[in-house]
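Internal ticket #5521
Category: modeling
Description: The requester needs a full-assembly model to guide mutagenesis choices. All entity lines are attached below as received. Residue total reported by intake: 1116.
Assigned to: D.W.
Attached entities:
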Amino acid sequence: MGELTQIEVEIVEEKAPQMVRFVGIFQSIIGLVAMGVGVLLLAPLVGPFIAGEINFGSFAGILILNTMPMILFGLWLFNIGRSVYKVFAHEFPWIIYANIIYFGLLVWIGGSLPYLAIGSLVAILLLFTPSVRSYWWKLFKEDLGPRMKELRYSLYLIRRSPLVVVGVVIILGYVFIALTVNLWAPYGPTERIWTETLQAPSPTHIWGTDQNGGDIFSMVMWATRIDLRIALTVVSVALIIGTFLGAAAGYFGGAVDEVVMRITDVFFAFPGLILAMAIVSALGERNLDNIAIALMVVWWPTYARLVRGQVLIERERLYVEAARSVGASDFRILLTHILPNTVQPVIVQATLDLGGVLLTAAGLSFIGFGAEAGTAEWGLMIATGQDHFTFYWLVFYPGIAILLCALAFNLVGDGVRDILDPKLRRR
Amino acid sequence: MKWSTMRLRDYVIRRIFLSIPVIIGVLAITFVLAYVVGNPLALYVDERTTPDAYAAIRLEHGLDEPIYVQFFLYLRNLFAGDWGYSNTARMDVIPTIQRYFPATIELAIVSMIIAVVIGIPLGIISATKKDKLTDHVTRVIALAGVSMPIFWFALMLKYLFYFQFFMWGLPFLPEGGRYSFIYVDYTPITNFVLLDAVLTLNGVLFFDALIHFVMPAMCLGYIFLAIITRMMRSSMLEVLKEDYITLARSKGLTERVVIYRHALRNAMIPTVTVIGLAFGGLITGAVLTETIFSWPGLGRWAVAAILTSDIPSINAFTILVAIIFVSANLIVDLIYATLDPRIRYG
Amino acid sequence: MTDNVPLVQVKNLKKYFPLTGGVFRKVLGYVRAVDDISFDIVKGETLGLVGESGCGKTTTGRTLLRLIPPTSGTMIFEGQDISELKSKEMRFLRRNMGIVFQDPMASLDPRLTIKNAVGEPLLVNGIARGYGLRQKVIELLNKVGLNEDHLNRFPHEFSGGQRQRICIARALALNPKLVVMDEPTSSTDVSVQAQTLNLMKDLQKEFDLTYLFISHNLSVVKHMSDRVAVMYLGKIMEMTPRDIFQEAMHPYSAALVSSVPVPNPEFRGRAAILSGEVPSPINPPTGCRFHPRCRFAKEVCKDEVPDLRDMGDGHLVACHFAGELDLDYKAQIEAQEATITGR
């Protein structure tokens, strides 16, 4: 440890070598590219939208789901680059974290975007060149210590609860299927064998076929992609919007609080599925994007309320007052003291909601919104199967897929809530 | 820092006042959805409508007025009882609701009774036998209920009890409907079949209707049984940790007396709230199951309206459900405040 | 030590908390936590603030740092009026002030390591970051008797006394001029208490600090303070530059002094001079706030609010009969002295 103290004397921030400056500039460029790509994704739709050729739903979908995240991430990545350029030692590891999260976003949006991650990989590798490494590695390693200790303790608690482990294993299984289904599924998602309709489960079609000759097993597997993606999208967007509004309402109080809470009151006056139904029918077109948008609109108030409640509790804590007494800004207090302490209940709620959204989306699909006929999607498969319900396998297998998935999320959410119960936790 | 004190009467008045803006908000949202985001004329126009005719229709429906005037007209129509024409039911919306409402409510009440009667004892047993086999089984049943797609469950029940039982030559349950109109004579009085059967002392009708209730009520009831059981279990466990329970035990009271005399009352309070909230969920469930069981209620009507983009019907259904839901929550809050005085100080 | 330059001047400070009720949550009344108090703190001294719990001493400390806004009155810090400052300007000024709270566990964020907790003032004010921050934090920790090994631990890994020292290190990080000590030792046990108090005295000398020392414990206040102010129901009853144990002139101060327990089983003095409960700060008594519990109360005490009068040497007393009463608590004091010297 004494070694670190000496390094401090050696490193003077002004004398940073070219290499560090270069890493900072490189990272800023990654950020700029991200912002540019975000704009490019939307650009081809602007004309047709103004001309009225495409409806509000699909335009808003791209805007909210692709462009906005890319621009916000771009800004973030750019800022990290700027801090690194100025040699803020504690900012260096953020290049690693931010680029990994950015990679997740690129994969999620899909298309050829994941290739952009090569730039991020280079930035991370540059970070480990000896001359750059000396600037942050020791501090990073030291900061990592206590965090790893906490993480290990959490993992230990999770391992002790068998139901959570079962849930995690099931979820990982679903994720694995979704990522690799294109490699091993016997048939494509829309592939039909017209000569083999309504066949009972047999060695050729282990879960049978539907009225058009679609292989149920393959379709259920392919549907994992679509359904998990919807659940994940809806919950993460709702969580971000809800957290933002809830935190603002709780922390600043007064008029902001009144307005946000009255709006959530109104949203809570509808059962989720009913409001989503009304929204999708107002949006006109029936597709999965509209379902996702409707569910986001329905779900954000849950998080707004949850976060506000937590923030109201945390705001009165003594350590918040202590931070204020040393001159911390409202923004910093909210970001470093209040929100991290509200994360746990939000994570639990989000896990439970992944199951809830999955069920509601399937329900909407079942009523007749959602994917166009023939898409491999669980709710839709059950809906088309009900006309032939005497052939049980049409309905049974997609339903089991939904049930298991929702069950796994509920198991994990419930279990983690019990684990995080402050009465059991050591502090 | 704010100290507040509030009496029950004040709380009730305040709570009722607070639901007025919520209802106005509900109406505003439905207005925005139907008139701003959606196209309220979707039913009246198609590709063959000439621009002149289109303009005439717009004028007739007041769509050329500014938004706030339109909203005012919308509110005026709603309060005047003019909720529009339901293309799906081929009559005005208000009589349509009057026709379909009893069927849904009756189904909801029967399901709720099943859920409460089975769910609360199940929760208590699960809590008192914590981590025993009974508890594990109950928890799995409850968790499956929460994770179950209700429409899938309905289809599976129908497959088993209607189709498979029929194939096996067993006495099978009816496929759907509220009663067998072919061989049971029934003239609606209140439109609640079971109530009418009792009023007219019609034993055959009562039994027949009861048989028709089995599958839909089992289906809806199971989902809410799961919610109620989970809530009952966790609140019972919470209460059993309290000091006054330890005191009661240390006085030498039997476990039975401790649980039913001392713990149950307090453990019931959170469960009551959940029952109120579950009522909204019952209506959601009705939307998903009524079609499957050909149940002539609001849910089936709403789904039919959705499939034909019948905006007035969807709108009316949404408003109605919201009002029911808000009232249910209001009643629950008031019960809660009477049971638990702490809630009033906040 | 004192050169008589006031670092802080407080004039007619009031802090009322609104009380709401009814259907529309209208304001029904106010809790008068601090009601029209004035005092100065001279550079380099320690002003002790004593009183029973709920008398408004903590509120005074927090209002002084503008952690809660005052209802009315002025607070002048180094010649600058801070009672009306905007929160941004106030944030800048807070570099000159520190506070140590009563409960060290609650005043440390459970998710922050000690390095981040103590380093926070330096980071948010742009004084240090990265390796430099680490170095400064180590220096601060050394000052309060902790070391480098403690840097990356969480608050729950420390004992109560250590946590309080961490809080002191954090309060000192910005090299402040004024530190408000809000019952800093009341949540630790007696052996640790003495250690912490001595540390505070040493730090005061080293950094030329000015303390506002808030406590309900008279002996602790006596040990720490140059001057003592006695608060009762939101008002200052007595303020003395001398030993409050020897010179108390207000009946309330006398009662407080005589209620300090005597560690001598032989002693049979008159305890419990204070009878009755502390009245509610929502409806404080008219006239002198202490009159319902005062054994010397006369008619005039019910009607007229006594001013703080100077009884010589800056000894201020808010009593109509200051100096005329036979307070009769000396026996108690002597017994205390006897036990202490007897050892």
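Resolution: model delivered.
Comment from assignee: The radius of gyration of chain C is 21 Å.
Ticket closed.
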